[in-house]
Amino acid sequence: MWAASQLRLGAAVLAALLALACQSGREPIPSAQTVPTLEAEWIDLAGLNERLAAERGRVVVINFWATWCEPCREEFPHLIRLYERHSRRGLNLLSVSIDSPRVRDTEVRKFLGEQRPPFPVFIKTAGDDDAFINGIDPNWSGAVPMTYIYDRQGLRRHALTGPQSLAMLEKLIQPLL
Amino acid sequence: MRKLGIGVAILAVAVAAGFYGWRAYSGPPAPPPQVSVGQKVADFTLPDTQGQPHSLASLRGSAGTLLIFISTRCPVSNNYNERMEALHRDYSGRGIRLVGINSNRTEPVEEVRRHAQEKGLSFLILKDEGNRIADYFGASVTPEAYLLDTQDVLRYHGRLDADQHEPSLNANELRSALDTFLGGGTLADTGKKAFGCTIKRVGG
After folding, report:
1. Per-residue pLDDT for B173 more than 90?
2. Helices (H), chain B
3. So what's the pLDDT on residue B203?
4. Which residues pair with A156 in a beta bridge?
């Protein structure tokens, strides 16, 4: 009787551990957004850090881009696809344009209207690029596109210079989801 | 208890697998610079857009050499074409030799030559096939400037000015550095960053 009870307890603990191992103890997090973003919201370094902190619990991809950057424009549809595939599993994507503030309502809006990204899009406010770049990452040269991947604890896990393929991004986020 | 032990082992493996992605991946970023401000730049030789080789020593101006990594296709670099030409015009008479370097593997030398003609760039432009010199300096964006004194010691590294869209700034940060340097002063603040295009490296 005692042995059977112990066995049941052991099985229950094992089942719980396996469930924990498989799901990391988390419920699926609903996607952060379901409607396309057609206008970029202003953001500065402090705002971006606050937003990142608020995303704790999700895997977060931050992508810095510009309308004048052709590799960024080519990479953008991959980011949309990435978000569409994985947002239901707890991925969020913060897209940050480093275009001049004066083109927010022209070039940036036009590009977003064409792409209709399902994730939030921001545009850097006017201010010193140097402080912004170093505030994000002292090792970042300021070249775009630049992509960072954060895990659910908010730790930066990857810094990706240049345009990335969907396959590469998925390879890197899969272990974190 | 044995099963519990197995469960713990499975959990440990799963947690380890979860951290598999820790190793940071990088695309084709610039390697660490082999020279920094205050250090002597090793002589090198690169061909111009006509194929004629030039050594760094042969290019040295009477007061110094200004190297700027540039691009034919990068909109940021192109936004600085007039400002770079103005720098060349304003400082060549003061002993500063401005030399452009194109290290982008995606921009062949014929394109670099044609671009210079079309944009009216009258300063010498060298083609850095294989991005060997960009790697040496650790240059990663276009445009990116390096000022060398007459001993080829690196005295300034950084951007031309704070805003690619504002030509009225006219490369004021680099001009300020040049003026300070030519006046015999010490450059207190070097290496400021600006947004730009990645240098498209071989293997990238």
Report:
1. yes
2. 2-18, 56-59, 75-79, 81-92, 109-119, 132-137, 172-182
3. 67
4. A150
The rounded distance, in Å, linking the Cα atoms of B204 and B202 is 5
Indicate the residue type of A20.
L
pLDDT beyond 90 at B202: no
In tens, the pLDDT along B5-48 reads 555 454 444 333 333 333 333 345 788 899 999 999 999 999 99
Contact residues, B window 54-113, toward A, CB-based 8 Å cutoff: 73, 75-76
Q: Is the pLDDT of residue A9 over 60?
A: no
B193–A175 C-beta distance less than 8 A: no
Q: What is the pLDDT of residue A10?
A: 55
Phi-psi region of A175 (alpha: psi -120 to 50; beta: other; left: phi over 0): alpha
Partner residue opposite A160 with nearest CB, options B21, B27, B164? B27
Question: Looking at the complex, does the CB of residue A11 fall below 8 Å from at least one CB of chain B?
Answer: yes
Which chain B residue has the Cα nearest residue A138? Answer: B193
Tell me how far the alpha carbon of residue A147 is from its chain's centroid: 9
Average pLDDT of the residues of chain A: 87
Cβ–Cβ below 8 Å for A10 and B21: no
> Quick one: CA torsion of B185, B61, B171, B186, rounded to 10 degrees?
-10
CA angle B28, B31, B33 (to 5 degrees): 150
ipTM value > 0.90: no
How many pairs of residues across A and B have Cβ atoms under 8 Å apart?
114
CA distances to A44, B48, B62, B146 from B96, in Å: 38, 18, 7, 12
Contact B141 A142 (CB under 8 A): yes
Write the CB contacts of B162 (distance below 8 Å, at least 6 apart in sequence).
A128, A129, A130, B169, B172, B173, B192, B194
Residue A119 per-residue DSSP state = S
Exposed e or buried b per residue across B63-85, where buried means at least 16 C-beta atoms within 10 angstroms of its C-beta = bbbbbbbbbbebbbbbbbbebbb
Please check the confidence at residue A26 and state whether its pLDDT lies above 90: no
CA distance B157 to A88: 45
What average pLDDT score do residues B92-109 get?
Answer: 97
